[in-house]
Amino acid sequence: MQRAPHHRSRTRRRLTVGLVTGALAASLLGTAAAAAQPAPEAGAAAPALPSPPGTANVKVLVYYGSTGEESPTVDAGIEAIEDIGQTGPLAKRFKTTATADASVFTNAKRLGTFNAVVFLTGPGDVLDPEQEAGLESYVEAGGGFVGIHDAARTEPYSDWYTGLIGARPAATGPDDVQQATVEVGDRVHPATKSLPLEWKRADRWFNWATNPTGTVHTVASVRESTYKPGQGAAGTADHPVSWCRDYDGGRSFYTGMGGTAASFAETDFRAHLRGALEWTSRLARADCKATIDANYRADRVTVPNQPGQQDQIGEPHGLTVRPDGKVLYIGRGGGTADDPVVTDWSDPDVGKGTGRIYVYDPKTRKVTVAGGLTTFGNRGGGDELNKTEEGLLGITLDPDYENNGWIYVYWSPHSEIDRDTQMGKRRVSRFTLDPATDKLDPASEKVLLQWPMQIHSCCHAGGGMAFDSKGNLYVGVGDNNSSLYSDGYSGNNPEPNYKGVSFADARRTAGNTNNLNGKILRIHPEDDGTYSLPAGNLFTGKETAEGGGKTRGEIYAMGVRNPARLSIDKKTDVLYVGWVGPDAGEPSTTWGPAKYDTFAVIDHASNRGWPYCMGDKQPYRDRNLPDPDKPLGWYDCDHLKNESPNNDGLVGIPPAEANNIWYSPQGGAPEYPRGVDGVPDYDPGKAAYRLPWLKGGGQATMDGPVYRFDASVKSSVKWPRYWDGKWFVADFYDATNPRHAVTMNPADQGAGGLPLHADSLRKIIPVGEGGIRNLMDWKFAPDGSLYVLDYGRGFFNSDAESALWRVTYTGGAPTPAAKDLVKKGA
Question: Which one-letter DSSP state was computed for residue 722?
């Protein structure tokens, strides 16, 4: 290691960005190695530098200039960087030169020999205008930059340097060393790919004057709930601590960590610096554009319907994408805002609607109406007894669709309703869609599965559908239960009924082992239009108990309220699902938790709790005849019994299991102190919120996919590898509700483990006026772009804002380009 003499005091003055000097550019790009290679393209990284035989092929400059006393971290930092270049994966690959002499930045020939510059600087002006101009020219010519901790307080008057760093520390914040948890959201960048998902370490933690999220690519964040961030804290889960960006022709990496000398002795922190140096010095490629908002484009791909028609879209309710890239999406069955709605049960057309299947072709940018189904699903508006959520609710493709043209739909046929008993049927059907004409063959229907539902009262129809790799079909079925009659808490009022059929007691449906409503079904469709039962479902269908209780073998998961969206991770076959909670805006010390909208990772057959328990097994209060207004005991989530008079299944049912994400209007993952009996006290003033990035209000979960990056797909619009393995979760509403990609821990996600990190998608999948206000479904296409359905404004019809959108990535390939990598031994 070469270390130049200190220069502790120099005349300081306000900096201005100088002009790019031709001398520096010539030095960086005019080396002997450059002479032997093609001239670089504009903005490309500088070519590999010459290396005498037997020496390192990369040179790193560590600059530690200061306006006062040298920081105690300097020696430790220099030693760590030198060791990184001499040991481990980078053994003898680079040589470190350390200096506090800023004149190196005006020596274009010398500066141009370094692949990366590291700032271990203190606060204040450490460069004069000419020196800063030299640094600027170096970066413009393709140089790499790494800033550590106090480097964010260097050159405080330079806008260009602020852009290089990415953010400035806030005027207020903690100055002491504190233990905190770092969330490592980027699992592919060389600076973070080997780090723990949750990295517990001590350091000095900056608050930021302006949060850089969305303008830089964040690779790690610090969790504010794990330390005392003081004044100036972000106050949310979004507190970036390390990030990178392609900047002004070069590459910049900054970490707010490294505020203590002890940091540089940590194995993990050295790995963090090693990866940063690999990228900035061109030893490795990395995507530092993946979470920058400006690198995404959201386009509405459908046009509004013609007046009085639904030729483009009809009350959008679900989508799927064919292998050829065409998008199939459905309209539930609600008409236009001007269509009459029949609610008179004596009218034979009561509730009649047309559920339509649409095909969007991204090549022609045209929409075809593939066909329609006559549904019960056009009653809308008003109270619970004058609206419905039934209709055409779900669609998915057969795994062998390219050869057989089969699609599966989940729907409620109008032909099956009984106007006297006010009962109908839910159905899973297979149809053939001609891929040449994009037309549905109505005569091709095969009814796989059909079961009864009450239609006297709204709500909760479900609709999520997906196949796993074994050909098993998962179907999300709503609990067919009224939202009223329980004050917005557990839907367990046994009293209201119509002609003997309860419509306010979810123990009849979701909590009933002998009822297919309020469940996730798993069946294996057969070629002849029947289905078989895969092994490993919650029941076999043969269980009985004294008193005649029994089960349905199609049930994979019970205890869900309205699973409108579900997805299967195509890499692991694990099920991801979300469902809507009840309506209570606040918890009740009498009845239990407030409305919890829920997301869950389900990797085994199980009971998810509704209507007995929600969230991480937080119980409701029982009620029963003869007086349902009188609270009884709290449900025991580990030893559940269905003692409803409307239950025709087993009394002893599987225990409730903890879910991964739950949120109320007050915040994400609320928890309360529990008494000796294990029951939370549900005192709002004592609540702790474990997922601060989450908040509800009007709530309706919309589960999304787990993104899987496919390197074999040649596409200029596919989302980057950064998102690989992240689970996309959102809410129908866009106010303060979730629209995120979350990182789960595979080791505990199936047991109710909380997300470890969440990336906001609110600017990538835009919210607000002119954006996607009411997200109804979203899926990735084979080319890696994302399709999103916007329901529109209002309910039970389509309007001018109902639309299909496409969100594409425009940021380009990772940097540096492959041809600009420094080859070993070069």
Answer: G
